[in-house]
Amino acid sequence: GIQVEQSPPDLILQEGANSTLRCNFSDSVNNLQWFHQNPWGQLINLFYIPSGTKQNGRLSATTVATERYSLLYISSSQTTDSGVYFCAVEQNNDMRFGAGTRLTVKP
Amino acid sequence: EAQVTQNPRYLITVTGKKLTVTCSQNMNHEYMSWYRQDPGLGLRQIYYSMNVEVTDKGDVPEGYKVSRKEKRNFPLILESPSPNQTSLYFCASSLSGSLYGYTFGSGTRLTVV
Questions:
Q1: A30 to chain B, minimum CA–CA distance in Å?
Q2: To the nearest whole percent, how much of chain A has pLDDT over 70?
Q3: pLDDT reading at A1 higher than 90
Q4: Which whole-number Å values give the CA distances from B91 to A102, B10, B36, in the listed order?
Q5: Measured between CA atoms, how close is B29 to chain A, in angstroms?
Q6: Separation in Å, CA B72 to CA A61, A63, B33, B37
Q7: B90 with B4: CB under 8 angstroms?
Q8: For A72-103, how does the pLDDT look when each residue is reduced to its tens digit (9 = 90+)?
Q9: Which of A74, A93, A98, B105 could form a disulfide with A87 if both were Cys (CB 3.0 to 4.6 A apart)?
């Protein structure tokens, strides 16, 4: 099946810093989604982004499907951004999640 | 409010005692799925269902059963739980199996002693 790799596995930032999270996948995909798991365990949709660029406030994402990667940008990070960020891909109804990037934002 | 509801949120049980984790969605979604989340492994799919009476194994189906008798419900059954099934479980649904609009439940933290 398709492989999904996320980097870095862990990231510690000072509040106000910017960061880039990466998701690489091993084959062409139909869909790609970024999720945030908050410290209470809830999984929240961030971006549905099979290709192109989207922005929502301080967060933005870019997927380059032809090169099989997606990037999630967090600008001016806040403590509420802490948690685990997952990338998920779908290929012909087969969904795969990466292992996640654990982000800690310190005040 | 559109949502996926899992119950219970927390459960501690003993080895071998059958249990069921319920999952219900109110969005008329055709696709439903169960995942387990373990440290360092992300989310791994246990079972999924494309529609009523249609279920398929995911990556880690051993030790689990599911049923889809109604569109809105997709219970996860552990006939004889073992300690290696201690995990955080998530139910999810979407309209047609796509990641678009993929909605997760709040999770069930299961401990098997």
A1: 9
A2: 100
A3: no
A4: 22, 14, 9
A5: 15
A6: 32, 33, 12, 23
A7: no
A8: 999 999 999 999 999 999 988 788 999 999 99
A9: A98
